[in-house]
Amino acid sequence: MVTRLSHFFLRTLREDPADAEVTSHRLLVRAGYIRRQAPGVFAWLPLGLKVKAKIEGIIRDEMSNAGAYEVHFPALLPREPYEITGRWEEYGDGIFRLKDRKGADYLLAPTHEEVFTLLVKDLYSSYKDLPLSIYQIQDKYRDEARPRAGLLRGREFTMKDAYSFDYTDEGLDASYQAQRDAYERIFARLGLEFVIVQADAGAMGGSRSEEFLHPTAIGEDTFVRSAGGYAANVEAFTTVVPDSIPLEGLPAPVIFDSPNTPTIATLVAHSNAHLDAPADSVAGPATTGATEWSAAHTLKNVVLALTHLDGSRELVVVGIPGDRDIDDKRVEVAFAPAEVEQATEADFEKHPLLVKGYIGPWSPTGAVLGEESATGIRFLLDPRVVDGTAWITGANVDQKHVHSLVAGRDFFGDGFVEAASVRAGDPAPDGSGEVELARGMEIGHVFQLGRKYAEALGLKVLDENGKLVTVTMGSYGIGVTRILANIAELNNDAKGLIWPASVAPFDVHVVAAGRDGVVFEVAEQLSAELEASGLDVLYDDRPKVSPGVKFGDAELVGVPQIVIVGRGATDGQVELWDRRTGDREVVAVAEAIARLRA
Amino acid sequence: MVTRLSHFFLRTLREDPADAEVTSHRLLVRAGYIRRQAPGVFAWLPLGLKVKAKIEGIIRDEMSNAGAYEVHFPALLPREPYEITGRWEEYGDGIFRLKDRKGADYLLAPTHEEVFTLLVKDLYSSYKDLPLSIYQIQDKYRDEARPRAGLLRGREFTMKDAYSFDYTDEGLDASYQAQRDAYERIFARLGLEFVIVQADAGAMGGSRSEEFLHPTAIGEDTFVRSAGGYAANVEAFTTVVPDSIPLEGLPAPVIFDSPNTPTIATLVAHSNAHLDAPADSVAGPATTGATEWSAAHTLKNVVLALTHLDGSRELVVVGIPGDRDIDDKRVEVAFAPAEVEQATEADFEKHPLLVKGYIGPWSPTGAVLGEESATGIRFLLDPRVVDGTAWITGANVDQKHVHSLVAGRDFFGDGFVEAASVRAGDPAPDGSGEVELARGMEIGHVFQLGRKYAEALGLKVLDENGKLVTVTMGSYGIGVTRILANIAELNNDAKGLIWPASVAPFDVHVVAAGRDGVVFEVAEQLSAELEASGLDVLYDDRPKVSPGVKFGDAELVGVPQIVIVGRGATDGQVELWDRRTGDREVVAVAEAIARLRA
C-alpha cells in the first residue's frame, strides 16, 4: 500500500531541537524519525521505526547465517542472578533498580549474561548439546550520568546481544570467530566503516575482546593504530617495556634544594637553572642524548584513592614519567572494579609522610614508597620505569628533590600499572611501528568471557568422558540504535539525511509538484506501479503544499531515490532525483519505473 | 535455511512445570516456547518468538489496512504526564515505579494514553491533520498482585495499543469503528472465537467501550448475554428499572421483634414463622404473587468503606434486595477510583447508630439512613428499590426488624448504585430477553476515551473556523501474548499443541524416522525442496534419537503438518501426518511436496 504524506504520521520541523549536540540527533528529530521523552529516552516515529526494522532485519539475517537462534528476555529481571556474579553491586549508579509490590529487588537489565547462562543451564546438560549461539534484539537500560548526543548515548537503547556456549577453548574460538565474521558482514551491508580494535578483557574476567569502532570525530572512544595494522582502544594498549640498564657505574642520588617547585614545569625550570646538564647515564632510554632537563627526566608520583566494592578506601601512589598524565580510562580499567579518584586534602592529612608536591619513593631516612615502604601505601610504577633508569623526583621533604635516583637500586615499586596516557609516536606493542591516535564510536563488541559466568552460576555439562566440565562463553553486542545514529551521522548534507538504500525508510519518494490534475494522476499511477513491483513508496500527495516545501521535506527525510512529477507530466515525463549526488534527470514515466525497479 | 533439530535451541520437557495452572502455560513451557524468569515474567525461546512474530505480523497487517501507523514508545517514562492525568496515584500498587540516579520519578508504563496525547500535541495543530490513528506493539508492565496462569496474567506482557485522534464526535465514531473492524479481522485470521461485550467506560472517563472476550471456562471475566444479541461484562450491565408502584393504600410499616436474625436466612425463616403471608401489595414487582416470605422481600443494607484517592475513608450503606449479593467488580467500577472494602468492626464502633445485623433506613425515632440521615453516611439503593416497593428490613434497633416499609414513602436513598450481582434470567437492558452468564478472557478492548486526556494535557487543534477545539480520542488494545496463550489454550490435545497454520512456528515438521542412510538423504532433500518453495521447515535430523521420541516431540511442539520419512524412503514414499486430525497417509515424495505447497 502506497504511503501518502497527506495522511502519514510525519511532521518535519524547521528548527533544530535545542538540546541537539550532534548532527544525527538534530536531523533525526527535525526529519521526524524520533522524539525525546525524557533525558536519553526517545519515542520512535514511523520513519525511524522503519529504518530501525531494516537494520534489525540485516542483523537477524546475518545472525541466522552465523547459526545463532533468536530468543527474547525480559527487560525486568530479578536481582538474584546479578547478585551471584557480583554485578548487582558493580553497576553502582549505572543501572535502574526497582522493587515490586512485595519488596523484591529487580533491575532493568543493561546486559543479559547471567540469565542466558541460567537458561542454558536449565535446558542443557551434555557436550553434545554444544556449541550453541543464541541472541536477542532487545531494549536495554543504563542510567547514564550524562545522557547525550541523542541516540548515541541514551538511557534506553536497542541492542543485539548474542551469547555463545562451548565446552572447549577451541570451540569458543570458533564461536567467537563466527560472530566476528557476522559483524564484518553486517557493517559492510550497512555501509558503515569500522576498525576492529583490541579491547580490555580484564574487567569482565575474559580472555579476548575486540571492539568494532566506527571512526568518527564525535566518537567517545580514543583508539590507537599503527600503519602496520595494530589497533586497540587506549584501555587495551600495552606499553612496550624498554630494556633495563646495567646499574654498575651509575652516579649516586643527590638531594638538592628545590624551593617552590611542586609542579613538573617548575621542577624542570629549576633543574635547568641549577643542575648540570643531563649526562646520558642519568636518565632512561627515552631521554638519551638530551642536552637539557625535560619533563621526561622526572618521575611524577600521583596519589590516587581507590574505593573498593566493599566500600573500603585505599590510597595508591602511581609513578609515571613526568611528561605523561594519568589516563582516566586506562586507570579505571587498571583498577576495576574499584572506583578511582584523585586523593583529597583529607587523604594527605592522614598521611604526613606524603609531602604534597615533593613525593618520591626515597628519602634520606629510608624508603617512603615501594618495597619496605614506611607508609604502607602501594607504589605502582609505569612499565617504562625499568631497572637502571635514573630520575629526578621528590625527596619526601618539603622544598627538596633528588636527582640520579635509580630504579632497581635506590627504589623499588610494588608492581607496574598501565596508567599513563598513550601518545602518538608510542611504539605499538606488536612491533608494527609507531601508533597514531584516532576517535571512534563503539558499534559492536565481541568478547570471550571464558568461564567466569558459567563458574559463578554453575553451568556445567558432561564431556565425552562423562566428566562434568564448566562451559566457556562468549558475549557479542551490537548497538542497534547507536548504529542507526551513526549511519545518520555519516550520511547527510546541509539539507538533511541521505540514507543508504539498504536501510532507507522507503525505496522511493514520489513528489507531486504542481496543481494540475494531471500531475496528481500521473504521480498516483506511478506510485501504484512502483509499489506493485515490490518497492516501498512514500508519495507526497499533499494538495496544497508548494513544490518548494515538498522538495525541502524530501531532502530532509532522505529517501535516496526521489521522483518529481511536475509540469512534464502532461508529456509523460518525470524527473529522477538522486538525493546523494543531487543529479536530476528528465525521463519518460516508463523509463523511470524501469530504472527504479532495477 | 532449513532449521535442524540437531542444532536448534529447543529442549522439550517431560514434566509439567510445577507452577502451571492452565493448559497453555503447561504446554508452552514443556514444548520449549517460553521459560519463567520471575513471577509473571517470561523469556521467549525461539519457537515462542516465532509464533509471537506471526501474531504481530497479522496485527500489523490489519492495523495498516485500518490506516494506522506504527510508532514505538519507551517502556520507561517520566512521572509528569501521568501525574497530570491523576493516574500516577490511581494505579496504586499496580505499576512498577522507580527513580533515576538524580531521584526523578519514572514508571514502567502499563498503558500509554498520556504520551501519545503529548506526541500529537507536539506535532499537530490543525483539524486538517486529523483523523490520525497510531499504534505500537510494545512490552508493558503491571505489578499484578497475583501473577498467574502463565502468559494469561503476567507482569510483563506484549500489547498492541492504538490511539485515535479526531476533532469531532463523528470522527471518533469512524476511527473507533475502523479499529473495531480491524479487530474482527484479526481474531478471524487467528481463528479465535470472540464475543464483543459492552464494557464500563466510566472509570477512564470515556463514553463508549467494548471488550473482545474469548469465551473460555478459564476466563477471568464474567459476562452476560441474551439470545437476542445483548452482551456486556458484568461491570457494564445495567439493571432494568421496574415501574414504580402507587403509594396510595399501601399498609403502614410495622416493627416486629426478630430475635437472633442478623442474617437474611434467619430473618426469612423468622418472618415465615411469625408474620402473615405476604400480600401482593407489600413487596416489589419481583415478588408479586409469592405465598411465602423469601430473601427477595428483604432489603439487605451492606456497609462499605471507600478509600478515596486523597486517602480519606468514607462509609457508604448500599441497600440491595436480600436475594442478591454485592458484586465486587460492579461495586469497584461503581465507586472508582475509590477503593472499596467491607466495613470493619472499628467502623461499626465509630457509628453506634448502625446496629449490625439490624441496619435499616428507618427507625422509630426517625431516618437513620438516606435523606435527612442521622448518621451522615450516604445511603445508595439498588435501582430495583423503586418508589412503592415494600420491604422487610432492619429497624436500627437490636433484635428488631420492620416490614411493609415502603420506598418513597417511609424511606429515601441518596441515589442509586449498580452494586448487586447479576443473575441468569435478569432482563437485558435492551429488551432482548433474559441474560445468561458466561466466562471469557479479555483479548481486546476498544474504547472511546473522548476528551479526558486531551483536556488534561491540552491537546487542541484549530477547527475550520480558526477556533481552538479539544481533540477527542480513542484507545484500542490487543494483548499479543495473551492471544498467543489463548490460541494455545484452544488448540491442543493430550499429546501437545496443535497450532493453526496462520501462527504455527513452522509450516512443516519433517521427521527422519529410522537409521538408514537413505532415510536421512530423502528427509534432507525433501526439507531442502520444501524450504526452497518458500515453506519454513523444522527438520528433525537428530541421528541417535528414536522415532518414538521424535514423534512425541513433534506432537508436543504442534506444527500442524508433519512428514515422516521412514522405511518407505527406499521406495520413495513418505507419510503425511495431520497433527490436528491425526490422519496419516503414505504418499510419494513428489506428491508430498505438491500437497504441502498447496
UniProtKB/TrEMBL annotation, chains A, B:
It is found in: Cytoplasm. The keyword Aminoacyl-tRNA synthetase applies. The keyword Cytoplasm applies. Its EC number is 6.1.1.15. GO terms for cellular component: cytosol. It comes from the Bacteria. Homodimer. NCBIfam families: PRK09194.1, proS_fam_II. Belongs to the class-II aminoacyl-tRNA synthetase family. ProS type 1 subfamily. This is Proline--tRNA ligase. The lineage of its organism: Bacteria, Bacillati, Actinomycetota, Actinomycetes, Micrococcales.
